[in-house]
Amino acid sequence: MPPTDPFAARMLAQIALIERYRVDVLHREGRRLDSDGAALEWISRYAEHFPSPEQFDCGSPSATTRGCARLQPRLRPLSPSAG
Question: How far is CA 82 from the centre of its chain?
Fold first, then answer.
């Protein structure tokens, strides 16, 4: 069951993307990052473009009409030139 609190939903989405970033860096660059290091790098590169908590709120006018469970943040894809 997805979280109903928009801040919790947003945090869970960020955690998932940070872990994906950590794996991508390992495959792309061969660098092993711990979760904290990956979080710091991801935040400095992508947090500015991450959806606001209101976009994770089912009651918000800006939330998708298909339901919160399907709301997926749209970020630019990770690429070697990103940064």
Answer: 15
Q: What is residue 71's DSSP assignment?
A: -
pLDDT tens digits for range 2-42: 666 788 888 888 898 999 999 999 999 999 999 999 999 99
| pTM greater than the 0.70 cutoff | no
Burial state string for 40-79 with b = 16 or more CB within 10 A and e = fewer than 16: ebbeeebeeebbeeebbbeeeeebeeeebeebebeeeebe
Residue spans of the domains in the chain: they are 6-60
Please state, in angstroms and rounded to a whole number, the distance separating the CA atoms of residues 67 and 59: 10
Nearest to 11 by CA among 65, 58, 47, 61: 47
As a whole number of Å, the end-to-end CA separation of the chain is 34
